[in-house]
Amino acid sequence: MITRLTLLLAATLSLSSAFAEPKKLLVVTVTTGFRHSSIETAEKVIAELGQKSGAFTVDYVHHPEGQPKNPGKPPVKGPKDTDESFKGKQEAYSAALAKFNEDNKAWGDKIKAYMADKMALDKIKHYDGFVFANTTGDLQFPDREGFIKLIEGGKAFIAMHSGSDTYHPFRGYIDMLGGEFETHKAQVEIQPILHSPGHIITKSVPQGWKVFDEIYIIKSFDKAKVHGLLGLDSHPNLSQMNDEEKAKVTAEKRYYPVSWCKEYGAGRVYYNSLGHREDVWDPTWKADTKERRNSPEIAQTYQEMILAGIKWALKLDEAVSTPGNIP
């Protein structure tokens, strides 16, 4: 009888799970700093993962249109420039910079009003989780502390790549995430250490897995406070350095995290610093062209990590995620 009841209960739970409403994710792709060309690809991939898995639906807070273009660095006098022609370039640049500064102030006001509407707590509190897909800068949330309390209260938070290059002055965000972007060098192929091969997020990552991407150097990171998933024991660009640079970074004996997850109050946080390149996100992006540096299989593995990370953060899947597992 006990066995029958147990089997009946298990079947009932399985059936109810199969017909459970999908979770609701809000994907934010607003940037007030550098804007990655891979954001549109990321938006597409996250929507596809939700649709194919049936685990979640996706709404977006897209980047509003009309951001002014920075005129860039001031002109440098070339060998063919006369004093008069170079003066003309300088004056044109000064005028363009003044126009940009004026337009950018208006743009900042527009972003603030836009985010006050889109990210008001009463409008977003019904979501089960939030994804920062390559966000950058100060996102101008109307109540950033309130947003962090949503995560602490039980919501999911997932960030990819420059999600760590976001809200630097706001330590509440950095503490919640577990680390922040410091710098990066040239794109490079890495073979990250698989710290937790049995974890639901990384179980699809094969031993010896390699990926070509822009690899972040992360600061404000404490091994003891996260469950490490992927990382490096040496600088990702060591092979590209001269002997003096190699000696300097080797002497630091620094650890370079790539991906981790953590509990945050009653909520869960997953971060993956990969995702600068479109071909990391999408197996089909510019297939069979020289622009691809990652095989479709590498992108497929990345997608599997992202999907598993989202489901873990949403508490749809469980895995031992004890902090302090990085040697």
Q: What is the CATH superfamily label?
A: Class I glutamine amidotransferase (GATase) domain
* Percent of residues in beta strands: 15-25%
The fold-level CATH name is Rossmann fold
The total domain count is 1
Query: What is the averaged pLDDT score?
Result: 94
Describe the overall structure.
- The chain has 327 residues and is an alpha/beta fold.
- It has one domain: Rossmann fold (3-Layer(aba) Sandwich).
- It contains nine helices and twelve strands.
- The strands form three sheets. The chain has an eight-stranded mixed sheet. It has a two-stranded antiparallel ribbon with strand order 5-9.
- The longest helix is centred in the first third of the chain and has 36 residues, at 83-118.
- Residues 9-18 have low confidence and may be disordered.
SSE topology sketch:
Layout: H1 2-18, E1 23-28, H2 39-53, E2 56-61, H3 83-118, H4 121-124, E3 129-133, H5 144-152, E4 156-160, H6 171-177, E5 180-184, E6 188-190, E7 193-194, E8 211-213, E9 216-219, E10 227-232, H7 243-252, E11 256-264, E12 267-272, H8 278-281, H9 296-313
Parallel strand pairs: 1-2, 1-3, 3-4, 4-12
Antiparallel strand pairs: 5-9, 6-8, 7-10, 10-11, 11-12
